[in-house]
Design goal:
Number of strands of chain B: 11
Radius of gyration of chain A: 13 Å
Helix content of chain A: under 10%
Distance between the termini of chain B: 34 Å
Structural class of chain B: mainly beta
Number of helices of chain B: 0
Strand content of chain A: over 45%
Oligomer: heterodimer
Structural class of chain A: mainly beta
Order of helices and strands of chain B: EEEEEEEEEEE
Largest interface: A-B, 23 and 24 residues
Helix content of chain B: under 10%
Chain lengths: 113, 113
């Protein structure tokens, strides 16, 4: 019940296309859903996050879509660029757990020029 | 100024040796973490300290021992290194009040020969 399942494991998208990464969770007590971006040789960094009181959050080309009833959330990258090539992690946490993050397995995204 | 720093960046050592990795954060955060990232990029939480107190201690061999001398530092000591310990180790910190955003260090790449 603590798991966060992320798919796909890897994704290749043409420059200018839309990249979509999906995550699903079981624990309905989760109340914070961040996405982290990791470039090779670097630590993960927060990209965008959402709480379950909204169904969508957009920051520039990055959008999180959240479906509370389906217990799913996804990251959409519009107009994908080669600089977006990285590994993306979804995660989930509960406010009463000291915000311990439960991590997805990661998606390696490659944007082809 | 580097927010979360780790030393050393690279560590190459022989099986059976003992080594330490140091982590410092200058963000004023109360909570610090150690993660292990294997070759498949999966992020595994190892330990978490809040105000120098151990709050998360996942199932890791007792050869791994964290030490937090103060809120800004969390070190990781590894005894009797094994081949399977080869990985990238990340330190992270969070303030909790910010919704649980974790700030990661650059990682320490450990190779056990």
């Amino acid at each position: 019940q603590q798991q966060v399942k992320q798919s796909p494991q890897s994704l290749i998208v043409q420059k200018g296309g839309i990249s979509i990464i999906n995550c699903a969770y079981e624990n309905t007590a989760f109340d914070y859903f961040p996405w982290y971006q990791q470039f090779p040789g670097k630590g993960p960094a927060l990209l965008i996050a959402i709480r379950p009181d909204v169904s969508e959050k957009k920051e520039g080309r990055f959008t999180i879509s959240f479906n509370k009833s389906a217990k799913q959330f996804s990251l959409h990258i519009m107009d994908s660029q080669p600089g977006d090539s990285a590994t993306y992690f979804c995660a989930a946490s509960r406010g009463d757990s000291n915000y311990q993050l439960i991590w997805g397995a990661g998606t390696k995204l490659i944007i082809k020029p | 100024d580097t927010a979360v720093s780790q030393t050393p960046k690279y560590l190459v050592t022989q099986m059976g040796n003992d080594k330490s990795i140091k982590c410092e954060q200058n963000l004023g955060h109360d909570t610090m973490y150690w993660y292990k990232q294997d070759s498949k990029k999966f992020l595994k939480i190892m330990f978490s300290y809040n105000n120098k107190e151990l709050i998360i201690n996942e199932t890791v061999p007792n050869r791994f021992s964290p030490k937090s001398p103060d809120k800004a530092h969390l070190n990781l000591h590894i005894n009797s290194l094994e081949l399977g310990d080869s990985a990238v180790y990340f330190c992270a910190s969070s303030g909790g009040g910010g919704g649980g955003t974790q700030y990661f260090g650059p990682g320490t790449r450990l190779l056990v020969l």
